[in-house]
Structure formats: structure tokens, C-alpha cells
Amino acid sequence: MIFTNPRGAPELACDHCGCRWVDRLKGKAYCYECGEEISDEAIAEFQRAIADFSAGNRSASAAGQEENPE
Ligand SMILES: [Zn+2]
Prior knowledge:
By secondary structure, this protein is an alpha+beta fold.
């Protein structure tokens, strides 16, 4: 499950209970709250969301600089 925080950044959350307290160990992620494993699919989705967010931030700051030539 992917949440978006108020700054627009994605946050990985547990598919089972929805908590965002995830423990990543040895390439696997587990929920602290209910102990369920976070699926590879959810992690892949989260990594794509992070990449999209980073790309969006870079283009947003570049556009901001062009708007303020002085
Ligand atoms: Zn959980």
C-alpha cells in the first residue's frame, strides 16, 4: 500500500493493517504492527512512486528557477 504524505512524497505502508511502520531486513520488509510481510509488488510500486516523486521535484525546481531569472 502506498500513502502520500502532505509534502507529496510517497510512503510505504502495510497492505494488511495500513500502518506505515515498516521494518526492512535482508531484502524483505515486515510490518511492525501486524508482522505481515510487505509484498515485493508493493515495494516495487513504492520504488516507482519514489522515482516519480524525485523526477517531479527536479523538474519543479528547474521550472521555478526559470520563473525567477533575477
Ligand atoms: Zn501491518
